[in-house]
């Protein structure tokens, strides 16, 4: 690199820190290259000279730190003492600020210390002695303390980040030897402060001291048995931060920012202490610590157990500590249920009570409280731990013990799932609403855990809450949120109940139909509609309740909750189709009325077509054409009009996709061949989709011609036809010729993934049919040839631009060769090109083409021995296949994809064992292949390992992964 002009560098730095993002991006690369150069060791000091701008000084400091972190090998051994002295002088120089520069210099000293621990073993002691004992003249005591804490805090983080030849485990062990000294030093300082008044600077340094302990414990670890005294000090600090402000009669009861920050830092450090990896090995100490937490913090949570409390942040941290403790020490605490130890039982009871209080925090999450969400995971953990107990007697005892707890929890969850009402919703942002939606889903999951403990008894609890809520509504009709929460709670456990429950669910269904929805918020109706859909399995076993469910769903179709109504109706028609036969015509009429109104969203109309298809399938053959004409004809009329007009606008494109989606959904559900043990005898096998297709196939060709450049339109049209083919199966044969014309019309303009997929569907379904075989042979050839044309017209470096099409091409070919390999036994198909482009696909960076091309080649090799021309193709290309696979494993393919190549080696070895041995040896004989990082002995070992594996895929994958690690030079990093 050319010599760096300092003036130019300073200008660049000033522009970088004071410019827009676009300008910064332009300068970033140059500034980074300057930092990486060896000259940076000199100019970093020049930039930190007095009189320079803060930005320039800061860049000098981060450059010095970067060099120490990444380029320590550039520092000659004889210059290291001088470097230390210069860093210390710079720290003293910037002791008065700017703090930004001083902070980075302290971190630089930390990096230096980590590198020098073997040569300067007393480094940490020396730093503590120098700054704690105020040996630096003209620098205030508080600043010297600040510097010491910054240096100490950064050491564990630098230990993990620096580039060094020393093994990380060795380095960690060296740093760990100093943990007791660091904790003792900071603990002594904090203890001294407990009896003093705290000003802003004291708060600042105390927070740093606590962070320092937390960082060492988190990154290095410190025996939990040695943490009792520091934990007690941290708890005293939390209380000293909290109680004065709440007990001040002239104050607002709200902690200051400094108090809050210090208290939160203490609590986070306590979490680091109690969740250390090996702390479960010391249950007595864990018990002592958790009891300390409860003794010193429960009064705070009790004081703040109210909505919109002033000190929500600290309460959140306290509950987070309790939850972390119980999750980390769940086995210890569970013994509190079965143990005769009264203290352990009391500890368990107190801790669970606190977590229950956390779950039951007054107010609505996340606007009025922010704690309750963190407790929900505990309720899964508790029941999971109980049911995982191997001792049956203890398991049953624990189960009986937690039943009342989960019964209480069920009532709490109903309350916590209440939505904001009309009076408070204006205070909510879109982020708040999304957080609440996720929170309600978590509550729904927690109801399931309650069911695991309570079984059917949960319905008794929910039913009692429902009764109470309805009684309250009689006196206060505006409290719809409570009723909505009850319905949501019933919905959450619906999947556990089939038709056998006959006590509470019938009552619930009656309540749903008696609610005066028109007098209440629409959200109540929306949840009721979702609940009907959730209980479809129960309705199937209790069909007498279906009419009331239908009545509610039809009501919802014509409301602002039509989305929920279409979802509920879809589930009803899917799960209770045969039971709906008596109601099919009225329901179809209701659906058509709703569709004709034009008031539904497009997505709801599309979803409704699924129900229409299921209902239409129940009609007698003579009635179906009439409903097809009424409901489906408008779709094709609009599509035909758009095609005839030839007008392509964003609006016509949206309408085309919408109408095709409606047709596609109908085709997926309209099937009169009802395969069910309870099939109604008078149903005849009439396939109305065929009637529709015979009339409308020309429209699909017109759509393909008009919208050939619009991939989404083509995809939707192909999706509709694919549903028709799968639905009709052999009945589709009369339309097969038209389908081929449609596909070829697309191919002739563009080869795209949707056309490939529908081709595969047709070929796999009809190739074995003698009447269709010739047509499917032609389609197979067109399928391959048009794909080749696309590949041949693509620039060598442009294959990633068609990655989706390549992925689909080889995915379809894999299905074809797997199910009907004889279809590819055709002289018109160039096997050498198939293999050539599959190898090309293997080397792309995208995962899809890698996966499908490997799968295709694997199946091609598997089938090849049955077909002479395929055999010859593998014999001709075998060495190229293996060479490309090895290149991909060695350096081309992302490491996480390497194991996929095992199948290629495995099946070539199965089908061509003698040839494979020769091919591999020829390939590996090439010097420096696949990379210079693999020597001849390692290559020979790899060949032996691969040839030996003809069955064990897992072991072969392991060999490939190890070879990839060596070939990429990653061995040292993965020790």
Question: Which helices and strands, and how do they pair?
Answer:
Blueprint: H1 6-17, H2 21-36, H3 40-47, H4 54-70, H5 80-93, H6 99-115, H7 123-132, H8 141-161, H9 168-176, H10 179-193, H11 200-219, H12 228-247, H13 257-274, H14 283-303, H15 312-328, H16 330-338, H17 342-359, H18 376-387, H19 392-416, H20 430-454, H21 457-475, H22 480-492, H23 504-514, H24 522-534, H25 536-541, H26 546-557, H27 562-575, H28 584-597, H29 602-616, H30 624-645, H31 650-669, H32 688-706, H33 711-728, H34 736-749, H35 753-766, H36 773-792, H37 803-819, H38 831-842, H39 847-864, H40 868-892, H41 902-911, H42 913-924, H43 936-948, H44 953-967
Helix pairs in contact: 1-2, 3-4, 4-6, 5-6, 6-8, 7-8, 8-9, 8-11, 10-11, 10-12, 11-13, 12-13, 12-14, 13-15, 14-15, 14-17, 15-17, 16-17, 18-19, 18-20, 19-20, 19-21, 19-22, 20-22, 21-22, 22-24, 23-26, 24-26, 24-27, 26-27, 27-29, 28-29, 29-31, 30-31, 30-32, 31-33, 32-33, 32-34, 33-35, 34-35, ...
Core attributes:
mainly alpha; 44 helices; 975 residues; Importin-13; single chain; small GTPase binding; disordered C terminus; 0% strand; Importin_rep_1; globular
């Amino acid at each position: 690199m050319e010599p760096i002009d300092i003036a130019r560098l300073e200008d660049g730095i000033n522009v970088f820190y004071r410019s827009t993002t676009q300008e910064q991006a332009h300068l970033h690369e140059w500034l980074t290259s300057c930092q990486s150069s060896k000259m940076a060791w000199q100019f970093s000091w020049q930039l930190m000279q007095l009189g320079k701008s803060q930005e320039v000084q800061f860049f000098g400091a981060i450059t010095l730190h970067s060099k120490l972190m990444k380029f320590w090998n550039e520092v000659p051994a004889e210059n290291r003492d001088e470097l230390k002295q210069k860093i210390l002088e710079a720290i003293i120089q910037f002791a008065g600020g700017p703090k930004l520069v001083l902070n980075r210099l302290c971190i630089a000293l930390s990096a230096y210390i980590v590198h020098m621990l073997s040569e300067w073993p007393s480094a940490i002691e020396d730093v503590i002695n120098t700054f704690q004992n105020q040996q630096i003249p003209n620098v205030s005591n508080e600043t010297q303390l600040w510097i010491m804490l910054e240096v100490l805090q950064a050491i564990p983080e630098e230990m993990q980040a620096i580039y060094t030849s020393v093994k990380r485990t060795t380095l960690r062990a060296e740093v760990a030897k100093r943990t007791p000294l660091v904790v003792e030093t900071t603990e002594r300082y904090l203890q001294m402060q407990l009896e003093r008044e705290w000003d802003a600077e004291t708060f600042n340094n105390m927070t740093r001291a606590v962070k320092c302990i937390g960082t060492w414990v988190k990154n290095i670890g410190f025996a939990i048995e040695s943490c009792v005294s520091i934990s007690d000090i941290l708890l005293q600090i939390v209380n000293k931060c909290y109680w004065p402000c709440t007990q001040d009669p002239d104050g607002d009861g709200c902690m200051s920012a400094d108090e809050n920050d210090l208290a939160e830092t203490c609590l986070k450090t306590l979490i680091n202490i109690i969740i250390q990896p090996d702390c479960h090995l010391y249950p007595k100490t864990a018990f002592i610590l958790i009891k300390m937490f409860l003794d010193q913090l429960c009064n705070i949570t009790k004081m703040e157990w109210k909505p919109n409390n002033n000190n929500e942040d600290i309460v959140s941290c306290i509950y987070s500590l309790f939850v972390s403790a119980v999750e980390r020490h769940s086995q210890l605490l569970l013994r509190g249920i079965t143990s005769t130890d009264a203290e352990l039982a009391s500890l368990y009871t107190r801790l669970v009570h606190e977590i229950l209080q956390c779950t039951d925090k007054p107010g609505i999450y996340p606007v009025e409280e922010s704690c309750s969400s963190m407790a929900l995971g505990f309720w899964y953990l508790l029941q999971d731990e109980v049911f995982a107990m191997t001792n049956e007697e203890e398991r049953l005892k624990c189960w009986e013990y937690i039943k009342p707890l989960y019964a209480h929890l069920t009532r709490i969850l109903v309350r916590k799932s209440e939505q904001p009402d009309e009076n408070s919703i204006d205070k909510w942002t879109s982020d708040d609403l999304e957080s609440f939606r996720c929170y309600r889903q978590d509550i729904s999951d927690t109801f399931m855990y309650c069911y695991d403990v309570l079984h059917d008894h949960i319905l008794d609890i929910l039913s009692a809450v429902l009764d109470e809520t309805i009684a309250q509504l009689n006196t206060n009709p505006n409290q719809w949120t409570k009723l909505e929460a009850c319905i949501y709670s019933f919905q959450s456990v619906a999947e556990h109940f089939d038709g056998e429950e006959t006590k509470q669910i019938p009552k619930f269904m009656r309540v749903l139909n008696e609610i005066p929805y028109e007098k209440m918020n629409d959200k109540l109706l929306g949840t009721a509609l979702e609940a009907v859909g959730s209980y479809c399995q129960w309705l199937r076993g209790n069909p007498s309740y279906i009419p009331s469910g239908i009545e509610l769903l039809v009501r919802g179709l014509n409301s602002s909750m039509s989305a929920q109504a279409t979802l509920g109706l879809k589930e009803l028609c899917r799960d209770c189709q045969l039971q709906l036969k008596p109601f099919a015509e009225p329901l179809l009429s209701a659906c058509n009325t709703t569709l004709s109104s034009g008031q539904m969203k497009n997505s709801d109309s599309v979803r409704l077509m699924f129900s229409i298809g299921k209902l239409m399938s129940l009609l007698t053959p003579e009635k179906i054409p009439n409903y097809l004409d009424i409901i489906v004809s408008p779709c094709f009329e609009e599509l035909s009009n758009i095609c005839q007009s030839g007008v392509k606008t964003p609006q016509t494109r949206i309408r085309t996709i919408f109408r095709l989606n409606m047709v596609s959904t109908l085709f997926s559900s309209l099937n009169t061949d009802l395969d069910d043990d309870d099939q109604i005898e008078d149903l005849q096998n009439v396939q109305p989709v065929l009637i529709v297709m015979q009339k409308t196939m020309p429209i699909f060709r017109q759509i393909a011609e008009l919208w050939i450049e619009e991939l989404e339109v083509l995809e939707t049209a192909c999706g509709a036809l694919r549903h028709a083919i799968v639905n009709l199966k052999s009945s589709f044969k009369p339309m097969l010729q038209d389908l081929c014309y449609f596909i070829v019309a697309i191919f002739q303009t563009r080869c795209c993934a949707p056309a490939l997929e529908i081709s595969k569907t047709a070929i796999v379904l009809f190739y074995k049919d003698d009447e269709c075989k010739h047509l499917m042979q032609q389609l197979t050839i067109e399928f391959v040839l048009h794909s080749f044309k696309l590949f041949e017209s693509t620039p060598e470096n442009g294959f990633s631009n068609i990655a989706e099409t390549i992925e689909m091409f080889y995915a379809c070919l894999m299905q074809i060769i797997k199910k009907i390999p004889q279809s590819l036994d055709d002289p018109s198909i160039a096997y050498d090109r198939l293999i050539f482009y599959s190898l090309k696909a293997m080397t792309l960076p995208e995962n899809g083409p890698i996966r499908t091309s490997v799968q295709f080649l694997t199946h091609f090799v598997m089938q090849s021995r049955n077909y002479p021309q395929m055999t010859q193709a593998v014999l001709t290309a075998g060495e190229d296949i293996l060479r490309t696979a090895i290149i991909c494993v060695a350096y081309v393919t992302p490491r996480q994809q390497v194991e996929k190549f095992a199948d290629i080696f495995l099946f070539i070895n199965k089908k061509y064992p003698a040839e494979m041995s020769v091919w591999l040896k020829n390939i590996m004989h090439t010097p420096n292949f696949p990379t210079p990082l693999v020597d001849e002995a390692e290559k020979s070992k790899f060949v032996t390992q691969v040839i030996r594996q003809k069955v064990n895929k897992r072991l072969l994958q392991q060999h490939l992964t190890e070879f990839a690690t060596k070939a990429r030079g990653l061995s040292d990093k993965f020790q």
